[in-house]
Amino acid sequence: MASIDSAVARGSRVYADRPGFAARHAKTLASTRSALFSLFVATALVFAVELIVRQSLTDTLSYVLDPTRPALTTIGIFFLILLAVDGIFGREHKSAVVIAPLALLPAVICQQKQVFLSDPLYPTDFLFGRQIMELMPVLVKDRPWTAVGIAVGLVATVVAIALLLRFAWRTFPKLTTRERVARLAFALPLLVAFWNIMDYNQFSWIRDRLKVIPIMWDQTENYKHNGFALAFAINLPMANVSAPAGYMADAIDRIPVKPLPAGTSHRGKPDVIVLMSESFWDPTRLPNVKLSPDPMPTIREMQSGNVFSPEFGGMTANVEFEALTGFSNAFLPYGSIPYQQYIRNPIPSLATFFRGEGYVSRAIHPFQSWFWNRTAVYKAFGFDMFKSEENMPPMQKRGIFASDDSLTNEIIRQADAMDDPFFFFAVTLQGHGPYEANRYANNTIKVEGDLPEADRQVLATYAQGIKEADDSLKKLMDWAKNRDRETVIVLFGDHLPPLNTVYTSTGFMKGVTAERKGSKEQMKAQHETPLVVWSNKTGPKKNVGTISPAFLSYQILKQSGYEHPYYTGFLGKVYDQYRVVDRYMLIRKNGKEVAEWSRQPKVPALLRDYRFLQHDMMFGDRFSTDRFFKSHADLFASVETH
């Protein structure tokens, strides 16, 4: 043993005596320490991001330590990014100063989004960052101290990052050209290879081994399993909508077209007013509380049925998309927003249909025209005009939003100025949350029940808004009753309101946001909003039941006396079998539910054809134009050059 030790010592002295050995040995140790520190930073960042998003130390530890989840993969990706950024900047660990805020800020935004809505942060959310800023005064008023904390935190973060970057540039060790190339040569190919296996539309054996499992049909589980960073990255390609299997001209040609009956122009051309009422819902559905008097007597008397909203607490544009086009969000990537991502070219809609019948088609909304990209979308839908806050007379406010009463007066004013038949699509604003206490000087709806005072005030504010929306509908109906021309009025709520802890305090829901999946009874309770379909000549249409917003076009045209190859023909066939077409659930005409239908090996032929037609007109070659949308075709060119 002594002889071995002696030999090792002699060998060490030999190598130590060689020129440059000590320097190379020190350099190797320094590089190892640098790599280990970058690995530590990557681990700390992943842990911090998950802790912020999950708001639970136990859940975060479970994610990081669970071998069936891709925490180690996420750490590895962060490690590679840090190495690559160091190689680009040429300074050790300067990447940590740059990457940390880029990782932590989206996590904070995600956590805040989940407070108000049920979904995590998607890449597409940044497409409408401007409207988030526009609504910031409302959010600040609702949670002032949180807002102050965020503002102070942002300022402190910006200052800290600036100082750290300056400090890093002056003091962090400079990398040699060889070290920079080595980092980039190691990190970039691996990052590119990883990105190439992230397309969730294609199976990847390597991705599966890395425990990255895209769960696109359930984004809550997607973020829970994969973690915020990977789930966010998985959703980046969602704007790329691939054609459904089997889509081609022959497939469209095989879809039968229902022959139109002779004389489809009705007994006359009725005026049509559709009101999408912001966050309109029946608050008397809340258990363990009593509201008196009834805040919605008119709508209760005239109610035709309910709309099954695909959203909760927000995302109004997705409901509006279905109502105006007759297409379904169920056939689009989860988390996508058609108004932001997909409506770039003319699309058939109720506006183009009515214009083809000689109507004036007008959209009305008492807010700024850029919100939800409505200016461009309404142009693509074929509306003659969009009357927004910028080009309407000043309106009376209730709280900080235009009142339903003043919007009703404006609708009446515009209608009275019309000679030609008209189609108005109006989106109200007064019902928008949050529902701060004392928004109204006088709440006329009494709230009884065992509720925390803060929740009682929120519910009182919301109920007062419902009463005023109901009063406004009555005013519009009273006006219509005195008209000679038939007037069809349709009102529906876009989604349930964001009442926050009112839901949990009353026992209506387990959480403050609705579930995305559940039993039919649970889903209907958390997604149904009132629907009124009424004519000044025939009164309310009853027994419509609960329908998806996509079937509103069918109801509107039927009530107005029109037939159409798609809106009453094809959609009528779908409506004959299904009343709700949701991403997670179908509800048949007989009331039976079909859960997880989209994940079945074979989709029903009728729904397959429904998806074909939607893809064809939104993304495809419009093979179906002549057979299903012929009356719209002449308007496409005018919309494109309008």
UniProtKB/TrEMBL annotation:
Highest rank taxon of the organism: Bacteria
Native source organism of the sequence: Ensifer adhaerens
Topology in the lipid bilayer: Multi-pass membrane protein
Membrane spanning stretches: 34-52, 72-89, 96-116, 145-169, 181-198
EC number: 2.7.8.-
Main location, first listed in the record: membrane
Protein name as catalogued: LTA synthase family protein
GO molecular function, one term: transferase activity
Record keywords: Cell membrane, Membrane, Transferase, Transmembrane, Transmembrane helix
Location of this chain's protein in the cell: Cell membrane
Domain Sulfatase N-terminal, residue spans: 270-561
